[in-house]
Structure formats: structure tokens, C-alpha cells
Amino acid sequence: MARASAARLFAPARALFSSHYGPDLRSPFVPNLSRHLAGLARPKEEREAWRDSMEKIRNIGISAHIDSGKTTLTERILFYTGRIHEIHEVRGKDGVGAKMDSMDLEREKGITIQSAATYCTWDSHQVNIIDTPGHVDFTIEVERALRVLDGAILVLCSVGGVQSQSITVDRQMRRYEVPRLIFINKLDRMGADPWKVLDQAKQKLGHNCAAVQIPIGLEGELRGLVDLVKCKALYFDGVYGEKIISDEIPSHLASLVTEKRRQLIEAVSEVDDTLAEIFLNDEPITADDLEMAVRRATLSLKFIPVFMGSAFKNKGVQLLLDGVVNYLPCPIEVTNHALDQTKNEEKVSLSGSPDGPLVALAFKLEEGRFGQLTYLRIYQGTMRRGDFMVNVQSGKKIKVPRLVRLHADDMEDIQKAHAGEIVAVFGVDCASGDTFTDGSVKYTMTSMNVPEPVMSLAIAPSSKDMGGQFSKALNRFQREDPTFQVGLDPESGQTIISGMGELHLDIYVERIKREYKVEAVVGKPQVNFRETITRRAEFDYLHKKQSGGQGQYGRVIGYIEPLPEGSGTKFEFENMMIGQAIPSSFIPAIEKGFKEACNSGSLIGHPVENIRVVLTDGASHAVDSSELAFKLAALYAFRHCYPAAKPVILEPIMLVELKAPTEFQGPITGDINRRKGMIMANDQEGDDCIITAHVPLNNMFGYSTALRSMTQGKGEFTMEYREHAPVSQDVQTQLMNTHKKTKAAE
Length: 746
Description:
Largest sheet: 8 strands, antiparallel
Main location: mitochondrion
Subcellular location: Mitochondrion
InterPro entries: EFG_II, EFG_III, EFG_III/V, EFG_IV, EFG_V, EFG_V-like, EFTu-like_2, G_TR_CS
Helix content: 25-40%
Number of domains: 5
Shape: globular
Low-confidence stretches: 1-44, 91-96, 102-115
Structural class: alpha+beta
CATH architecture of the largest domain: 3-Layer(aba) Sandwich
Distance between the termini: 79 Å
Pfam families: EFG_C, EFG_III, EFG_IV, GTP_EFTU, GTP_EFTU_D2
Number of strands: 38
Mean pLDDT: 77
Strand content: 25-35%
Keywords: Elongation factor, GTP-binding, Mitochondrion, Nucleotide-binding, Protein biosynthesis
């Protein structure tokens, strides 16, 4: 009723203004009229138009283990979709490098560090691609990219198969419920075996997957692919394989095609009722039936279609693009949730409509030529250049000065963008993970998982006059990357940078030098140890000080104890006091005192965690008690009872996966044992052995050099943080003695 009466009320105004200013009602005199009318029912055709345009958008990421050919694959996709007109290789001998690796450092090292965003058009669909890093030190980039994607391609090497980082990336995709395709790349390499890789995907990743293609020939004989859905043989002709020739299936592959198609139908029938019914009734299954069933099963995360090819040899990439369009979801087929801050973070489902209130997430920041560049994924509503939006985290109202669509480091100005799109804005001051709305709602997108840094370095500029540029660089990198943290050592006054590993920190030191022209002096890497307690200890401490005038008086009684395993918090404070022995206004000061005391344990001065502090009693003075007195009482009480709680030092333990030829297995195993590592698994894969071990990070410095010399450069390893675990007694004594010597020297 209200809507109908509103429509009648505004009808004369609508007629008047559309005659003067056209149908969009954007009058310079009545700026708010269109906003009032926005809530009214839109014509059906207009509503269907946005739905059609949304169905033609795909937001995808390409993730994989190092050197699986991810960036090369993206380069070919850009070439076939007409976004670039020539192909350059990753470690290009022509000195140009791949389009998506736009930082000098990336082209030099041949690895992808930042996720570059680009878009292209295929079969009248707009495909937004985020190229993500495959190195474990950059997992935050992968996490961030997956947070904003609707679908993903997991690239596996046909020789290497499912490797450690493939498992990590797959785990991240599972966490964010991203429907995905698998692309088995490098079929042209010696020893390529796609069926072995398919079995590994089923066993190691636990996927229900099946091939939708089979290769015609392998290694040097790779000539084309057979499409199992449409039962056609496809060959790639032309200099860059741009001409696709469709032909009959070769007779020698007929039986294999029948068998693999049956396996595909069986795998999909298990999770799709419609196809199962046709299959059980022994009715013929058409290409359309199978294609629709694969799409339904992929979107419901119950099945993963497996594509094959060789990006380097220009085979199979166009069919993978068809797969992206046919099997991966469009933005309205994915349910996104936001947290309503006005209702105690209640989960709200976002409609994905361009008519709704604006909700956008800043998932990446970059320092561009024209100031800070913020990558945004729009989940709902429409963003226009010149409009105002509100940063929910800071509450600031910001005008959108310039809106661009990105292609690696080239930009294209646009006037507006609607839900489902990935765009970038200039001159917006925010941090990574901030949510923007139009001010009518107070939603935040769910926070992203940020892993704790495991390694630290002391760093300083080589000359004092470089200080300004140096701090500018550190501030920028901190805003861009949540896992890169900067702090000050309170004792030495040195600047400490922390990150996810040696390579992560090395890259940042290198970037400070390249981008800001600041030579940095770097100290020895430091491991982020922790301390914890192993038993309960009582405290009863009276802090009393009289120095003329108002004194200080505060007494705290209680106990500290270790938190149970698996508890989500690292510090817990509980007030179990009965009565008012200590006025309630001083309780926060006591908690603050204990928290401060936990910042530095007495063993080696590292933070204390997994501790519960319980306050049971105390005493106060009517005049001399103050917040400061109770804070100091808590601080000293903790220091007094800490040794009685049998504290231990915890060190970061890394999950290390090594791959090397079998003849080097002996020396590698011996070396891991010498580094106090624990071997968890030892598998054989062809001529290689794959060793999985848990090794203390403190013993892993310079390991890449040691592994290379042990294996004549044939070994490779990846490591990621697993947990903090207690050190042995001899290591604890050694660390404590080193700490004492350092303090004495100061």
C-alpha cells in the first residue's frame, strides 16, 4: 500500500523531470529525488537486464604449487581473449616477462608475489582473474584473493602432481567454499602422467573428481584433446594454437574414451539426482544433460571437473575457458554473508542485487603512481564515481574520486560498477579487509584469517637521512600486508619486522631498496619464541609505597594456571572475588597490569601465552589506592609467582615437505635428525622420495643452501607454520644463558 501511494505521489514529479532531464531523474536541483524513488518497484525488463549482465560475470582465481605454470596459463588466457597481442614467458629471454608479473622483482625471480587483477571477455562473458602467488610465504595473498572470488582453477603439474602447496591452497579454497576446476598442466613434459595426478587428487585432497577430457598423445607427442562431454576430438593449430579443429575421435582411443566417459557419468551421478535417474533408467545421456549435471554438482561443491593441457605449448587453454563459463558460478549463484554490526554481528545474507544498499570489501591495497590504489569487490549495490561511501571500520565518509578497472598495472577509467564486479579506487585511505557501505547499513564482511608471523629481523636504514623514506615504506607494506608487522624492541630500540618466513622478509627488504632507494642494514633473523606455564601458582602481593603526600597501596591475591589445550584465547582474566575488598573501578587496572606482565616473561623476555589469571581477594586503602598502585601490584605479583608455575619456552615448529631423488634420502634424513626434526612420513614417487617432517624453525635457517649442496641442486622443500611446542631442557638452558649474556652486555 505504502509503495503504491508513494508511486502515485511521485508520478507528477517523475513526468515533469523526465521531460526536462531524461528518464534517469538526475536533476542538478533535486539531487535526492532519484534516491527516494530508488526504493520503488523497477520495471521487469530492467530487473532482468541486471540479472542477465550478472550471469555473464565470472570472478575466478588461479592457484597452484610453485612452478605449476600458473602465470603462464594466465598469460595464455589473456592472449586468447584478446587482452594482449603477443606472448611473453615468465623468465622471458626477451627481457619483457609475463604481463601479470608487473614488479621488477617478480620478473627477475620468476615468481609471482602480489595478486595482480585483470579482466577479459570470453564467449560474451566478462571474466575477472586474480593471479595468486604459489609460494607459502605469501599465503595471505592467496587467502585474500579467495575471499573475493566466486570460483577458482587449481593448477596441478602432470609430473609433480599434488604437492604440499597444492594441499594448502585446496584447504584455503575449502574454507571459503569456493567451487573449483582442476587443470592438469605441462602434459608436454617428460614423465607426464595425468591419471596418476587424478588419483592423487582423489586420495590426497579427498576430491570427488573425474576427467572431462583425455589427451591425444603425451610428452612430445601431445597433439590435442578429446572432450568427453561432447565426444569430440579437438586439435590446436596456428602459431599459438589459436585455431581449434574439431574432428572424429581417433579409433585407437575409442575404448579409453568410452571407459573414461562412463567414469565421469558415474562420479557425477553419485551427487546429482537428475543425472542418476537418467543413468539408472539406462536412457541415453546427451552432452547437454551431462554438462548441466556437471555444473550443478560443481556449484554445490560435490564434484570437481578435471581439465588437461599444456599452457606453454598452447594446448587446452580455450577449452578451460569454456569450462570456466560453463561450470563456475556467476556472482548471484554464490551466497555471501555479512555481519550486521548493529545486531551484535548477526549473519546477514547479501542479495547480490545492484539495487540494494552498497556493500564492498577492500581486499588489497597498493601504492600506485597516483597514490593509494584500493582493490574492491562489490557484493551488493552500485558504486558510482563522485558518490559518497562510508568505511564501516573507521566510520569515515569518503567520496569516490576515481573508479578504474584493472589489467595488471594498466588502468581503464569507468563511471560506475555494480554488484559482482572487481574494481579499484584511488585516494581512499583504508586498511586491507575494510568494508564500505553507502551509510544506510552497518555491515562488515567476515574477517579474513590472518596467520601469526613466525620470523623477525632487526632492520635499520644505513644512513639517518633516509629515515623518512624508510618509515614511509614500512607503513605502506604494513597496510598492504596484514602478515607483515613492524614493532620496536623496547630494550634495544631497534625496528623489528616480522613475517611468514625468510623469503617473505627478504622480498620486503629488497622492495625497500628498489622502490624507496633506501639501503637497509639487516640483523640476524630472530625466531618468535613464546613462554608458557605448566602448573598452577598462587600469588599474594602487597604493593605499598609512601613518599610524602599520597602514597601507593594495593594488594592482590589469587592464582595463575595454564589454559586447557585448544582454548581459543591466549590470555584469560577472571575476577572471582566475593565482596568489595577491591573497588570494581580498579579491576580493569589489575587486568592491564597482568596483561603487561605477560608481554615479557622472565625466562628469555618473550611474550607469555596460554595463561589464566584468577583474582580471588585483595585489599585497598581509602586514600592511597589508585589505578597505578593496583596495576603495579599485578605486575609484581605476576613476576613473583611466575617461577613457581614452572615456565617453559615454546618454539615455532614448521611442517617441512622435502622432495629429492631417492639416492639422497640418507643424507637428508640424517640432516633432519641433526636439526632435531621429527620425520612424519616418507613416500616414494617415481625416482623421488618425499619426506614430511616437523622441524623447529630455529634450526631451519639457511636450509635451502644446505639442501642444495646435499642433493646437487636437485632437492626442493616448502615449509609452513604448524604450532608452538615446548623446547627440550638443554635448549631452554642455552636460550636462557644467551638472554642473560645479552642483558649483561647492555
